[in-house]
Design brief:
With 403 residues, the chain is an alpha/beta fold. It is 28% helix and 25% strand. The chain binds flavin-adenine dinucleotide (FAD).
Length: 403
């Protein structure tokens, strides 16, 4: 096969691995660069719920809904048994406000052609045997097409697919990008901590929360505004807990109940998160441990099978949160040779976004579906964000040094 272009993809999380696999399949000569180990960034600890359950506005809902379908299509061709879990999602609301919001959401989603319905307690118990009966006033909804992904085996398979099409993975110091340049009329160059200099026709940055630092290296500081994740009180970090063992009847569904979100995790564990656990990268260890135990107590109140369970692992994990909360995908103003893709909901979106990104890079034709997500929407100060943002007033944290 003739190698048409040399393409460097920075970051081997779920998004970069997906983009690398798609580009390699087209015949591009792909080098995937990873500062640590593949799949060990945000993707590793993600709840990894594939959904468009509460995403707005409508075009962003549609983008995420397309994300669900893209994983369902890819799974049979990529050993989906190892990573694709089309388990469906149950949501329980208890308060009056919660019930009203859930009923309105189910109505809206149904109107948008998204499978969702309210169910009674008997059907909820049939769908999820481990669910403790919610109170008599509770309302339950069922979202049958939603899924979760096991990101580590998925990313392994995406990288193996890229490699089968000729891609090279550089990881650790060999893969840590420390310089990005493009002299006029010359191919962009990518420098690594290992001292290598790679020339490329295309450079795609999928470095998740570290993307603003890489944009700054390319001389485009401030063009990728993410919610500042390393300041005290930032909303970007979240506490993730893994607990087990679960016996005898482990839950099989995704479950959202008051104060607790959970899903099965390999090794007989549950993955737990909560909507209201205010932690950040400065929270003391003892407080994290205390909050992790509290999540397990909430899970016990929601599902059976956790009598013997203990907290096995916990981690503060950081969402890459664009300032206006929707994806940033495309060429950077002021450094058009650098294409970036950074998003929350990256697990939901990676299969679908990567198909569009590869098509744009190969054909040069802009994708109409990606038009609302271009980085140039942040030019000027008019975009909506009331939070502290990297690149506007706050410097980007240094490019990734840890693994
Ligand atoms: C608690 C939590 C729950 C979430 N739940 C969901 C959910 O239910 N559903 C959903 O769709 N999304 C969810 N998300 C968001 C989702 O996990 C992320 O959007 C997604 O994992 C981002 O993937 P990524 O590949 O862009 O980034 P990452 O997985 O962070 O990968 C980026 C990679 O870039 C590498 N890198 C950084 N700097 C450099 C450099 N200089 N050189 C080379 N490599 C570099 C990093 O080492 C890293 O491996 C959640 C996030 C969190 C934190």
């Amino acid at each position: 096969m003739v190698r048409l272009h040399r393409c460097v993809v920075i970051g081997a999380g779920v998004l970069g691995a997906s983009v690398a696999a798609r580009l390699a399949e087209t015949g591009m000569h792909v080098t995937l660069m990873e500062a640590g180990q593949p799949g060990r960034g945000t993707s590793r600890w993600s709840f990894a719920w594939v959904n468009s359950n509460d995403k707005g506005p409508r075009p962003y809902h549609d983008l995420n809904h397309a994300g669900l379908r893209a994983w369902a299509r890819l799974a049979p061709a990529l050993d989906g048994a190892a990573w694709y879990r089309p388990a469906g999602n149950l949501e329980v609301a208890a308060s009056a406000a919660g019930r009203a919001e859930l009923a309105a959401r189910v109505r809206r989603l149904t109107g948008w052609g998204y499978p969702a319905r309210l169910i009674d307690a008997a059907e909820a118990a049939q769908i999820e045997h481990a669910l403790r009966p919610p109170g008599p006033d509770a309302m339950t909804a069922w979202f049958p097409d939603e899924a979760y992904l096991l990101t580590e085996p998925l990313i392994e398979r995406l990288i193996a697919r890229a490699a089968a099409h000729g891609a090279t993975l550089l990881a650790g110091e060999q893969g840590r990008v420390t310089g990005l340049d493009a002299a006029p009329g010359r191919a962009p160059t990518v420098r690594t901590a290992g001292g290598a200099v790679l020339a490329a026709d295309q450079v795609v940055c999928c470095a998740g929360r570290w993307t603003p630092g890489l944009a700054a290296l390319a001389g485009a500081a401030g063009t990728v505004p993410l919610v500042a994740w390393n300041t005290p009180g930032s909303p970007a970090p979240a506490l993730v807990v893994r607990a087990g063992p679960v016996t005898p009847a482990a839950p099989v569904r995704l479950l959202h109940a008051p104060g607790i979100f959970l899903r099965p995790h390999p090794g007989g564990l549950l993955h737990l998160e909560a909507p209201d656990t205010p932690v950040d990268l400065h929270t003391p260890e003892a407080e994290l441990r205390h909050r992790a135990d509290e999540l397990l107590r909430r899970a016990r109140r929601t599902v059976r099978g956790l009598d013997e369970a203990r907290v096995v692992a916990y981690q503060v994990c950081v969402r890459p949160l664009p300032a206006d909360e929707v994806s940033i995908v495309g060429r950077l103003p002021g450094a058009g040779w650098l294409y970036v893709a950074v998003t929350h909901s990256g697990v939901t979106l990676a299969a679908h976004l990567s198909r569009h990104i590869a098509a744009e890079l190969v054909s040069g034709e802009p994708s109409a579906e990606l038009a609302p997500y271009r980085p140039d929407r942040f030019a000027g100060d008019g975009y909506p964000c009331s939070r502290e943002v990297i690149g506007r007033g706050l410097p980007a944290p240094d490019v990734r040094r840890d693994s």
